[in-house]
Amino acid sequence: MKHRELGASGVEVSEVGFGAWVVGTDWWGDRSDAQAVEMVRDALDAGVTYLDTGDVYGHGESERIVGDAIADRRESVTLATKIGYDFYNNPQAGHGELPKELTESYLREALESSLDRLGTDHVDLLQLHNANVGEVDGAVRDLLREWKAEGRVRALGWALGPSIGWLAEGDAAVEYDEFDAVQTVFNLFEQEPGRHFIDTIRETGSDTSVIARVPHSSGLLNEQVTPDTVLEDGDHRAHRPTEWYEAGWEKVEAIRFLETPDDGSRTLSQAAIRWLLAHEEVASVTPTFRDGEDIAEWSAASEVAPISDAEYDRLEALYARNFGVDRDDGMDALRTSVDGEDIAAAGLDKRAASY
Asked: Is residue 351 in some structural domain?
């Protein structure tokens, strides 16, 4: 497993990380606490040392499980969590988004609670969870700087989405000196706003890193959602419109050239991760592991054949014409929390993921 630095923070993350929301909820398959702990430890054994959780996942359950899993190996783990949702005073209604709270008093209590569940005195990366740009004022930024100076956190990030603003928030994360990373949905089929943030990083000379989540586009690029798949109502992937998957299955056929079936040296799901890692600004990719087979295959993506220049250029041409698919994918347009923000002017005319 190779590693990359988050911004200029000195914090290193494994190129393939563990999106630990999956062990705190039943939104992507149910498992016992013991099975969840075993999954985390299997990932660590496979070299996946970057663990990305959040306090709202399972209302603290993901953090608790991760804390149990790393109790005897904390020093070998790059640990990230997120705060900003007030689940303490609000019940979860299905998969809906909870109210956010970014007052100083709330954030202080939230961090202390997270550290307690994780069984640690610091996190390597603390991310604001889906905060709107207007909520991240001078007081919030001062507090983040304070925690960093105290060593409570080693690096700072801003995790974006789902249905709130993305564009202004990501640009702010790149602009503000406090932030070392911006996390966003980013994959071959959903390249915005990830491409926009990478362009902004390059244009400004920023040190900000990108953390890419949903790298397999909710089951399309790893072919775990096929035309024969029946998604249960509680499965998070079921929130995608049917049109999304129908269009996606056609797109998958257009990128079969990324596989190397003759010698088995690179699967399609590994290629999807390698494409993201072809961007030096991407520090880590966090697929949603379901079991040990996923962990073994996707963790190996750090070492398989990289995307060649010819392959990259071919993918660029395919993306420009929507992979040859002429149909509506049923997705909502990209959104922003800033009134009057011109998404079209920023060149973001593609569709965005709903989560």
From this structure: no
